Amino acid sequence: MAEQPAAHGDHDDTRRPARVYGVGEEPDPRFSMANERTALAWMRTALALVGGGVAVVSLSSLAGMPGWAPLVGAASCLGGGALALRSVSAWARVERALRLRLPLPAPRALAMLAAGVVALAVLTLVLSVVELTH
Amino acid sequence: MRLPGPPAGQPAGRGPFHRGRSGPAGHVPGREALQPERTALAWQRTAVTALVCLVPLVFVALRTHVTAVAVGAAAAMAVSGVLVWSVHRRLGQLGDDTRGYSPYTPMTLVLAVTVLCAVGGAAVGVSLWLR
């Protein structure tokens, strides 16, 4: 992505991060707010994964659940943490694209999230079946 | 992002999102279309979710005596306190404040809480599994 100089008197813009607000022109505020809400929705999804993971870990310490349960919880926590990092970087990339009037980046995180959740569900199912049959 | 300001001769900071000030909704022509209310609600939901996530983490860290996670959870709670303040400031920015603003700071605070929770939860999970 080519770096473009700031326009419309934004040279003295002190907003952070500079890699976003130091380039391009001020977009329509509705688009910026929609981008912000999308990032927050991703962040809540990440928090849900982390909260679910912590809940599984908590239950496994309380109710004598299978030995692998804490690992599933830990995996969910780590996935949520990675998704949170991704949501902030995606917000910055989209905001930058809006300011530069560039096409918006593809939402690849959606496919990654779906794959991760399905993998976690399959892992839990397989481990449950193995636990039941032994 | 810069929002349209109030009409000429009218002071800023009297929009519907300024606590304790009851300016009528639709004060600024065209402001409704910006949907600041939806954005404010999204921030509030996110802040509440971040706080709620910490409760089971603190509980399980204390119960399993994982000191490092208990310390991390305490740090996350401190960050959550700053987050609540930061969200309140953000709601003010979504009012009639015409200065440029960025959601980056509160967003990085939410990120910090989420990552602290994630690392803490994973640490407790692995320590339980190894026992």
From TrEMBL, chain B:
Region (Disordered) location: 1-31
Superkingdom of the source species: Bacteria
Residue intervals passing through the bilayer: 42-62, 69-87, 107-130
Main location, first listed in the record: membrane
Compartments where located: Endomembrane system
Domain DUF202 residue range list: 31-88
Keywords attached to this entry: Membrane, Transmembrane, Transmembrane helix
Topology class, membrane: Multi-pass membrane protein
Name of the protein: DUF202 domain-containing protein
Organism expressing this protein natively: Pedococcus ginsenosidimutans
